[in-house]
Amino acid sequence: MISPAFVQIDPVPWPSGQSEVVAMLALSPDALAERYALRFFEGSDNLDVYVAAAIRLESGRQLGLLRHHGAPVPGTELHADGKDDLLEAIREFLDCSGLTADDLQWVRDDLPLDHLRAVEHPA
After folding, report:
1. Is there a domain that residue 78 lies in?
2. Partners of 54 in the β-ladder
3. Most CB atoms within 10 A, among 50, 65, 82, 117?
4. Residues ≥6 apart with Cβ < 8 Å to 22
5. Which pLDDT does position 114 carry in this prediction?
6. 22 within a domain of the structure (yes/no)
7. What CA–CA distance (Å, rounded) separates 100 from 28?
8. For position 117, what pLDDT does the model report?
9. Domain limits at 44?
């Protein structure tokens, strides 16, 4: 188990009142639970039944991890507040979790994935 630089919180309303799906992590909820000692809860929305967990990063930023049971692709959605700097939310999550851009299988089209990759310096 990895000790991440974030804490699990009880789900609370988003500061702006809505969230945005910002990325899809390659890891499943089970893998995230094992790696970070997260507890996922069940819920449902207009799409399907899901499992989810809420976390707070070092900055105080709130994020959600969610997977709908009937999702056609593997992985876990990463949600951020709709009024947040979405690219910065992803960047901070990656830093806090020890993951990299390579652990993302999808990022919103309006967010430049290249800005999340580590800069390689010539030797």
Report:
1. yes
2. 9, 64
3. 65
4. 78, 79, 80, 86, 89, 90, 107, 108, 111
5. 72
6. yes
7. 16
8. 62
9. 17-110
